[in-house]
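Researcher: For the record, we're logging two predictions in this thread. I'll number them. Prediction 1 follows.
Model: Prediction 1, sequence and structure:
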Amino acid sequence: MTSGQFKPIPQIIMKLPPIEQQKLFNKAFAIIRDLDWMDVVQLTALVMGNDTLRQKLASEVINCVTQMLQAEVQYGD
């Protein structure tokens, strides 16, 4: 969020204004809307087992962070 400071994406999302969180939710939900799931455990298994879904969701989160906050996303282990 500021130059030289690392913040995990979940922490950044939690600090977004509610309207921005809702926008991200709407985009993510559009991706998973047609999946057949009963609870978050099953949804997680479906997403993690499908590279395409995982990539689409990750892409939406990255787009949110880079566009809304003009932040840079770095990957690391």
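Researcher: Logged. Prediction 2.
Model: Prediction 2, sequence and structure:
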Amino acid sequence: MQSLSRPLIRASASTPLLLRSLTTTPSTMSAGDTGAPKARGFLAEKDQFQRREAAQEAMYIRQQEMEKIERLRRKMKESQKHMDELDKHLEEYAKSQGGEQN
């Protein structure tokens, strides 16, 4: 195995630089890249557009959650009001049956 690999290595090392084929890779963009220079440090994976988009999505989700919470609060207030009315009816019923002496 070594005997087969050595001539290849020698051939590639002995060929002049002008005869060697150039093997450069062109810069390619991945899905979602916008061509902005790469950031360094904290958000190195995302460019400005991706950060803005993520912030808008987070704000939209937060707004949806706040609306859900507000609907739940309204529903709780309605339920509490209904429970108070039922308590009032029970007290009136108990008084009419003679269960309490006032």
